[in-house]
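Schema walk-through. Below, the input block comes first and the output block second. Nothing else is stored per chain. Lengths vary across the set, and this one has 948 residues.
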Amino acid sequence: MSRSVETTATDDPMAPAELVPAELVRACHAHHDRLALCDRDHRLSYGQLAEFVQVLQGQLSGDGPVALFGAPGSLLAAAAVTCVIGGRPFVHLDPAMPQAVLTNIVAELGVATIVTCQPPAPDQLPRACRIIDAQTCLDRRPPDGVGPLAAADVRPTDIIYLVATSGTTGRPKCIPVTHDAAWLSYRWRDGFTPYDPSMTVGIYIFAIWEMFRPLRMGAQLQFPGLNDLMSPQALVAFLSRHGIDEMLFTPSFFEKTLGGIDPEIGAALPLRRVVLNGEVVSDRLVAEAKRRLPGTALWNLYSICETHDISITRLDGVPAPAEGVSVGVAMPHLQAVVLDDGDRPCAPGQPGLLHFEGPRMLGPGYVNRPEETEQRFRMLTLDGADRRLYDTGDRGYVTEDGRIHVLGRIAHMLKLRGHSIQTRELTETLAAHLAFGQSIPWVQQVEGPGQVLVVYYTADAAQRARNADAWTLGTDWQRMPQALALALQQVLPRYCIPTWLARLDEIPINPVSGKCDFKALPPVPSEDGGADGAHDLPTLTCAARILGGAARSIDPARSFHDQGGDSLMCVDLILSLEAAYGRPVDFEWALNLPLARLHALLTTEAAASTPPASVRKAGILLTGATGFLGGHVLAEAARHLPEGQVIYCLVRPRTHDPAVRLADRAAALGVPQDRFVIVAGAIEDPRFGLDPATYADLAHRVSSVVHCAATVNLAVDRDRMEAWSQAGIATILQFCRDAGAPLAFSSSTSIFPDRGGPHPEGPATAFEGISGYGAAKIAAERAIAHAGIDALILRLPSLYDLEAPNPKDIYETILQACQRSGRVPQGLCFRMTDVRAAARLLLQSVPEGVTHANLIGDAAVTWPQDAPSLPTIPRAAWLDMAPLTPVERRLLQDAPGTLQADAAYDTATAQRLWSALGPYGQVSDPAALLARRLQPELVPEATTAIPR
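--- output ---
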């Protein structure tokens, strides 16, 4: 590392001859053809993982720490394996981290290289760092002459990885973990929870030590998507679909999940083992798990980053005879030491402050934090000997037989749904925004949300006045104001932001200890949950119940997330909404849409009443049939499919009147009703939400798939919209594999910049400033390329129909504004393709393998500078006077390249594929388009029309 970290040397003669890097290399060789890492977008065998490691290692240079940027998934896991095998310490950078936290981690560790496993937002990563794109490495193969994969020579005291804590002040602590501690932990745990190549392990949280355990033994790792995790029903489907043998959960999350698992369903799940970690486990939770998951073994793991693993025990559902659930006996290289407030050892069974010692397991301390290292890694003289102990921050006791009982956190650290919150650091951060005399953060139990973070504070008259001016704080109890929450989000993780602020006249003091009397802190006030008028909406009443307030206190114009709800609380919200509305609820909708908008979406007439699809004829599967492109594909298929075959149209049942809309679209395009069959389903649901028999029949009948569906929602921010848009590609690909059917996929030129080129017909990487829609298309393209099916990836610009323009297309909007204003912006330039040409090519036979093609005409749509009918004016002037909506105007002002999109494209593959259909000039006729839109009376004869 570029900044030194003191490590604890070991004189143990039993130091391992083979550490984790060598074990991972051995697994890659021994299990070459077995699957190692899987998610919605990637499926990597151990052999492919080895190749990726060799390619990425060739890109890394130096010997400092490497930062891995991205959400949990196969690419991030593969990058982590690369670092471990290569002997490079690494740290995970979560894209959800506030900008200040992410920047501080990089600076704290002196990181010079960042491996991106998903596209970062503009300026999200420090410009001074070298950036390596993991997907690019995956698309390459090791250079010729590179020998077999080999592990770096590492010492037991070298750092294997670093963990960045929550960063309650915006400056998180970085905790190094040694190779020795990791190896000792893995070997010890193998005796309790062994792994083998037949197992599939689900990854709930990206705990590095949990990921490497099964990989050493040839098991398969399966990463769920966000919606898989946040809906109990979707999680059950994920466990069943992938045959998950083991998953690790925090107790809070596991409790939420159990609420949605029927015992009969739970008994049929393949889940053999659940490991609970991160919080105290209650007897009630154990009993409920046994009732709902009777065939699943439950293990309680006690681990802390600073010590790696500590202990593990099997939970049998029998109530504990004493207070606190046992977490087992400390592993051989750790010893539990319980001290009282005077640092004196406690007798067996006597509660106190829990510490651990063990030279090979205790980490070296915190990077560049000597004072905090000294505070938590304590040197004490006990029984006449100097001993180095780690203060866990937990209160507990140890019995005569060595069994450890954890009673909970002590005051300087809180646990909130599995997250650790440093109270002193949180108070310091709040002090930069809120005026107070004293401040006490505390976690309260509330009916509905369960745990909520409350900050109790005192304030004099001047401080109250400042808080009222800055944040409109007035009452003794108040929910966190939105403006203050937004300010805190710049430096704090979401879970560190308090839900409630409570102003007290004084902090209650325990007369014996002289410290805060936490039991005397007033509870969160109960509010009348009644609703009235505009607040009489199920979305508001459900959200109020989860958030612990009244419906009238919930703002219908804001999302559940913006009003204090987090992802774990959203699980409860989804269950409540599904009961209230009687239909599945998307996690992203529930968390991020304004609650009034969410109600509107959930109350539109659904296609739930649509009869089950009649799957009796051969045919093709089409998504997006109610859309602009999909409708033309439907019409083209109806004209050219052999008699007796049909188009199965997958239509989301949650949208308004899907059967009616599809029938109207088909009628407008002249498609007879006997040529298509509506299949009510959603691409992001397992098996499209169909019952197994219908799904199997559909897979048997379908010979090819045309995927035209796409999601763009301006109510959801870019990152979430990107994840939402690509959520269904895994289900489509699984169907193609089940059906043995090729795929034709409508991609977009939005994966490229509007200018420059020529842009190639091959794999693409995200560019700076790419839209969420474009990034989602790239992710979908990559998933298709690695799916092992025949596929055509057809990239399309905006699409036009001379007879019926697409009102949602931005260029149709621009042309209409030109016609209505009588002016054209100077330099206007863009590409459009005839939608009928796109439909025809999507329905042609898909070549073997994966084919990328840019179906774009040779000529761009441009308006002559000297055209007499509509004069040109400067773009800025045109934007000022053109009849545009405020949203449209702002969109074009923020992306000025839209009006001069003069990019060039390679089209050789597209021209080769089109050659059997006619002259390539048929795919686009800019002159006819401009004449039709801007001078209707001058429409020329269609000399290059596509024949029907």
